[in-house]
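Re: the 627-residue chain
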Amino acid sequence: MPDIINLLPDAIANQIAAGEVVQRPASVVKELLENAIDAGASDIQLIIKDAGKNMVQVVDNGKGMSETDARMSFERHATSKINKADDLFAIKTMGFRGEALASIAAVAQVEMKTCTQEKELGAHIVIEGSEFIMQEPVATTCGTSIRVRNLFFNVPARRNFLKSNPVELRHINEEFIRVALANPNVGFSMTHNDLENYVLRPGKLSQRIVALFGKNYRSQLVTCNEEMAFIDIKGYVGKPEFSKKSRGEQYFFVNNRFIKSPYLNHAVFNAYSGLIADDQYPFFVLFIDIDPSHIDVNVHPTKTEIKFDDEKTVYNLIKSAVKRALGAHNVTPSMDFSFDTNFPQSFVGKINPEEQLNDQQRASKERDYQQFRKPDNPRQDSNLKNWEQLYESALKKESWPAFSDENKERTDPDQQGFVTMSSKANELKNSPDGNEIQEERNIFQLQNTFIVTTVKSGLMMMDQQAAHERILYERYISLLSGEAQGGSQQFLFPETIEMNPNDISLVMELKQSFNDLGFSFGVRGQSALILNGVPAGIPVSDGQRIFKGMLDAYKDRQKDPDATRQEQLARALALNAAVKPGKRLSKEEMISLIDQLFACELPNYSPRGANTYKILNMDSIHQLFNK
């Protein structure tokens, strides 16, 4: 039997290694930025073309490399950080400079210019698909410039798996934010297609957070600073009232390296227990400084996952540190022990607020109220004294002939002087269960949450929110699929919504779908969206709230692999635009809601799977009374 095991050629081996490290343009950005940090750069420029598919370039003012080091940096297993096996457990730098470059050069066209401070000329190297093209001296400034063109040009199958430009740009933004947060003392800039997206000056961590996420984050930051013998925990956590329904703004750094750890995230969420809902997630940027001998950073090729030798202790320390931070800033609820629960102040002695005002404050208050005061009327006081007499006749049934037993009609309780005649045109003929609602349309609202009406077989109870969600969901699906056209109501004064760059990228990716639904907006810079209009039927005053809630709900439901983008968007908007429990509805609104629900294709369930209505038949009602 002939031998069948052979050594792989270096070009193929490099491509296989690249598959572990270089998955998309954002992977290239991460590795090059971390190399620039390790080189001691104080200013780093990131230049991108076509979301990194065409070009990714990183320019730094770090130490640079000699001609020999520049050439060796593209060889496999070449690094300046490890000399012996023990060094693997004492790593405090970002990348092992050169390890990533070999993988990137295997699947792209790479050009490097680098120079050290001691030399007048630097090195210029060009490599394409692991094939060395040229190396020559070049006049360049101190530091390193690496340009990566045409990623996956020699592996077209992998290039076809890249997503659209907005999606890839969103991943690049995320990697840029992680590196920028970890190094607030370093200046960064990011340019995409010749447009400047970020200009970050060196400063404090709080300034870096505000520069990256927006000015509205300035008011929600709570300092977390705990120094212990085992670890140090520093950073910022968000106030509970600013938590969101979607993940994505939770950042953990261990020894200045970003990590993904659901276990540690749970420790922070547990510290917020009782302060936020179960489906909400707080903002936090936390740095853990720990002895490298207690962690292992080599469990994942991209080094985004690590292992602790005592995870339970780290979990408890993080939880207690966050709880202490929230308590120290009076964010957690506290009990007022100065208040006597047995003898409240209102029973001890009532204080007239007017007595606490000085003469100047009392005069000012009188002037402010004067504009709302009715003109003086000498007859007013006498009428007010006998106001009960105005209602004596109203209490007599014979004074309301329109409401005699022979001629009962519907009335609006808020307008007792008006009578609304019933109409056959508004009657619902048949429900899906074959239950015809009775002609008199006996209908009322229970606890401003459920709609109750009679049907021939008994009693029907409808959840107003679930029913409205089903109605809106099917309406929005028809708009997104092009089966119908919806209107848009424009704002008289456009509203500005502060958003982080990742959300801006997501909105631009979904812009056509948003337009189909009826939203009209523009983008200003990388952190602001100008909302010009909302879909017809949505109150203008709720436009901003519904837009942001829809975006958060969509991001949260992106994890559902079975739902299409249209279904996710329609479900997210319906969830936020539907009438909520506690909303009082008029009789006409309740009748319209019932009519529209039974006109839907699937009226029985909401998009969330909740029942929209239940029918209690007469047999069930008799059983309640043991009949």
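Residues 334-356, 363-385, 393-419, 421-439 have pLDDT under 50 and may be disordered.
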